[in-house]
Amino acid sequence: MSAGTLALFAGVVMVAYVIPGPDWVVILRHSARSRRAGLVAAAGVQCGLVVHLAAAAFGVSTVLLHSSVAFTMLKIVGAAYLVYLGAHALWRSWHGGDSRMPEKPLPKRMFRQAFLSNVLNPKAALFFVSVLPQFVDPADAAAPQVLTLGLLDIGLGVLWWGLFVLLTARLSGLMRESGPRKVLDRVTGTALVGLGGALVATS
User: Fold this and answer.
1) Is the distance from CB of 37 to CB of 177 less than 8 angstroms?
2) CB-based burial of residue 118 (10 Å sphere; 0-12 exposed, 13-18 middle, 19+ buried)?
3) 108, 113, 144, 198: most buried by Cβ count inside 10 Å?
4) E runs forming strands in the chain
5) Residues 6+ apart with CB under 8 A from 33
6) Which Pfam families does the record match to this protein (predicted)?
């Protein structure tokens, strides 16, 4: 695998990371509250990608994405989870009580939400079984190349989300006020519900 191929793949990966999606919204929602919360959510997302990489390496993702029934089930479950997260955020914005009170950090819950939102997203699996193989040189063994590209993807994600969290965590002071926190919950909640609906429409 040439350095040019790796550079081109890295460019494609970074474009995919920069474009807003479920991971983007979930991490933003947490990082705007605190840097620690954002980093926990980012770790959950990247661990989800590790699952997709392992599934692609063992052929599980290929089986799922080539079975209309399995793909549809994965879409529905993933969409339902995004809608649930969005509805929860919207509910908090309207019925969350005194949002000036500091939240008790729940790292396990934040990690789980981010992890599941990524693992249940069939588009993440699709990347590993449709985009990534295009950068594999058929003249060499496929498995080491898939592993190299997958780890490069995850490593770039760690750098991207680290920068993303550092930038968006600057909002944490603003989020101590009731009004901005409610607005953030409503915006991210609506975005998650919309992304869930768009996921259902994915063919």
Assistant:
1) no
2) buried
3) 113
4) none
5) 103, 172, 175, 181
6) LysE
